[in-house]
Design goal:
By secondary structure, the protein is mainly α. The chain has helices at about 5-45, 50-90, 95-105, 110-115, 120-140, 155-185. Helix 1 (about 5-45) packs antiparallel against helix 2, helix 2 runs antiparallel to helix 5 (about 120-140) and helix 5 packs antiparallel against helix 6 (about 155-185). The model is unreliable at about 190-194 (pLDDT under 50).
């Protein structure tokens, strides 16, 4: 087998690995969405506000690790893509998918134009996870915490409820900002690819 045939075989194997990573991300996202739907359904079916509150908080137990798995696969995809562009495509005469796509994005004058060349898969994954966190962030205080009649720290119950609601909202804002930053780093030409 000659050099070009070997390189093409490796190139095809890596393209298949990227397809596998994408497929795995869709499966992870489906599992996360299904689990969150089940958690929310279970939470809304509870009559005790303290049980509802705890169940709604379980959304984060699913979304945070789920998003980390999605990011790991995106990083894996960029590593493979970058390897193909830097090491394989210069050796191949006509196969230049990653190189051409990279060149088009570099020619784009603005971030909006660059995004035009993107499938926006990472952005959509981020949006779906953020929406699920937002739902949990709104349901846990309003359908759970603010309706509870339990005092924990021997201070007026209203202060405990409001403090808890504010903490949950702050957590959601932090998660939104943190995951938004990570999503931007995973875009083509972003921090991960440099």
């Amino acid at each position: 087998m000659d050099k070009e045939a070997q390189l093409l075989k490796e190139y095809q194997n890596l393209r298949d690995e990227i397809r596998g990573a994408d497929s795995l991300n869709y499966q992870i996202l489906g599992i996360v969405v299904g689990a969150v739907a089940a958690i929310l359904t279970t939470g809304f079916s509870q009559s005790d506000p303290s049980v509802r509150f705890l169940i709604f908080l379980c959304v984060y137990v699913v979304t945070i690790p789920g998003y980390r798995l999605l990011q790991g696969n995106r990083r894996r995809t960029w590593r493979i893509s970058t390897y193909m562009r830097i090491f394989l495509e210069p050796e191949l005469e006509f196969t230049k998918w990653e190189t051409r796509l990279d060149n088009q994005r570099k020619k784009a004058s603005t971030e909006t134009t660059r995004q035009f060349f993107s499938s926006l898969v990472g952005t959509n994954e981020w949006f779906i996870i953020s929406m699920m966190n937002l739902i949990a962030g709104l349901t846990s205080p309003f359908y759970g915490l603010l309706q509870m009649n339990i005092t924990i720290f021997n201070i007026p119950i209203e202060y405990e409820r409001i403090s808890g609601a504010v903490l949950i909202i702050i957590l959601n804002v932090w998660l939104l900002i943190s995951t938004s930053k990570q999503e931007k780093e995973l875009r083509r030409l972003g921090f991960v690819q440099k």
